[in-house]
Amino acid sequence: MKFGALHMAWFFLLLPLLVIFYRWAFRKKEKLQRRFADPGLWKRIMVGLSAGKQRLRPILTVFAVGLLAFSLLEPRWGYHWEDIHRRGVDLLVAVDTSRSMLAGDIKPSRLARARRDVEDLLGLVRGDRIGLIAFAGRAFVLCPLTLDYGALRIFINDLSVTTIPRGGSNIGAAIEKAIGTFEPGPGKHKALLLITDGENLEGDYEAAAQRAKQEGVRIFTIGMGKEEGTPITLTDDRGSHYLKDREGNIVVSRLNEPALEKIALLTGGAYHRATPRGREVELIYDRIAKMDKKELEESRKKVYEHRFQWPLLLALALLFLESILGEKKGAFTGLFSKSVGRK
């Protein structure tokens, strides 16, 4: 036996309260009876009432309340097997973890905002498999395609500029890694979401995008930052300071919107710049959700039968019986009492 709503078990606390109440009520009633008349006179006054029925009615009520509480637990026993077919899109999310993502032109930082966008995406997905790629100078699969969104969240929270030991920014490597991660084969169910500021310091992202198109991968891009750029703030043993190049000049990181637009256009995807409200994630997923679906999982599930109706029906029957029972003696008992009185 299984229960679907064990949190409703607190209703069983009503049972001892009812028992305590009825015991108090009967004792109170006995005290009032003794105060009203002596026991002999009281027996003559109550000759038409049944003491057994008076005790039976609260017992029926207590049992009825217990059965009602039991039905609220949603008891289930007996089961049948149900075939489950899950269809969806294979979606890889590639997040830029290079040091330029520490820029604060998007608060609190580009990387923090990227993590939030992936979290928002998980709140929108409907049965799709999702994986996570981190990239900087090279790309690495942190989480393969999975339906376990809880496990994926662990990797999202761990994203930082130290995730990839090799510095730099190689968007082409992220695209190539995604192509290799998708299962080979035809179908228009493969999507890649790139979250980056678009600064590509090495690699050929256009050639990688062309290959993605040939493999049936649609790339969607979210641009992090502003075109006018901003210095990159680092925090280390020396405190907070700006990142500088080898000549000692402050490095200014700028959003490379044309590159991200080109990647999306080449593969039939879409580009959106990150906004304070985060609507870009919803807009992109609306497009992804309309892509062709594939069979992601086929399984059988044991479905237990709901049986709350039976204790509920029995509880209602006991309450009905209690309402019609009354406290008078039955017809046979009354006739017997009258015949004895005549004698």
Please tag this protein with its features.
6-stranded mixed sheet; 3-stranded antiparallel sheet; 343 residues; alpha/beta; disordered C terminus; Rossmann fold
Characterize the structure shown.
With 343 residues, the protein is of the alpha/beta class. The protein has two domains: 2-74 and 308-342, no CATH class; 85-298, 3-Layer(aba) Sandwich (Rossmann fold), CATH 3.40.50. It has eleven helices and 13 strands. The strands form four sheets. The protein has a six-stranded mixed beta sheet with strand order 5-4-3-6-7-12, sandwiched between helices. α4 (110-122) links the parallel β3 (90-96) and β4. α1 (14-36) packs antiparallel against α3 (51-72), α3 (51-72) runs antiparallel to α10 (309-325) and α4 (110-122) packs antiparallel against α5. The relative contact order is 0.17.
